[in-house]
Amino acid sequence: MPLDADRMTSAPPVRTPVRWDERDVRLYHLALGAGVPETDPRELRYVYEGHPSGLQVLPTFGVVAGGTGGVGFQVFDLPGADIDLANVLHGGQEITVHRPLPAAARATAETRVAAVYDKGGAAVVVQESTLLGEDGAPLLTQRNHIFVRGEGGFGGDRGPSERLPAPDRAPDLVTEIPTLRQQALLYRLTGDWNPLHADPATARRAGYDRPVLHGLCSFGIAVKAVTDHLLDGDASRVADCRTRFAGAFLPGETLRLRVWKTADGHRLTATAADRSDAPVLTDARITAR
Hints:
By secondary structure, this protein is an alpha+beta fold.
C-alpha cells in the first residue's frame, strides 16, 4: 500500500518521554569536533561542566535529545505510511528555539506529520516534533523534511519553494573546518545508528565509496562555527536555523563554510573543500536574538 497523505496528517500526535543530562550534551559537542584546542576556554564551554559560565548547549542538540537520533523516521510507523525506507532521504532540517535548552532535563517530544507534499516523482513528508519542558511549555520545535522517492503523483499540494540562495557578493566569513576519519562513528553515539554511516558494504550499496557523515552532524558543525565566529560564542543567541542537505560529506574531509550577514540573519553554504567545493549544505540560514 503506498503512502496515504490524508491518514498520515490526520493521525494524532505521538508523545514520547525523553531525558538527557550533561554527559549527553558533552558527547554531542565532542561528536561535532568541539574541544579543540582542549585548553581554549571558548571550547571548554561546550565540553566541561565546570566552566565558570556553565555548560552551554547548541540548539542542534535538540535533534538528538533523549537519544532519538534526530532523523525521526518513526513517523513511518504511523497509519498510511507503508514506505520502503530504502527510498527515504533526509532532505532538510528546520529548528525553532523557543528558549535555550538546559544541560539536563526531563521532557516530552510531541511528534506529528505536519504536511505531505507531492513533488511528482517523489513525496516530501514534513515531520514536526516539539520538545516540551517539565513545565509543559515548548523548548524547541524541529521539522524534518523527509524525501521519499517514488511516492509522488498523488495529486497533492507541491508545497512552498522556500529557497534561500546565497547573496551575490563575497561572503563575510569563510572558514575551513577539518573533520576526523572516525567522525561518523562518534556521531552515531548520539543515537543515529543508520549503518550507512559505519558499514562500508552498506555505503557501497548506496553508491558511496565509504560511509558518509550524518547530514545533521555537518549542520551542527556549521551552526557551532557561526556561533563561535559571529555570535560571540553564545549558543543562547540562536533563535532558529535551517538547511537543505545538498550532498554527501565524507568523514576526514574539510568542510568549507561561507557565511553572509543579511537583514534576516546569516545565510550560509557548506561545501567539501577536498572535492572541488561539492555542495553539502545549501539554502541555510541562522537567525540570532
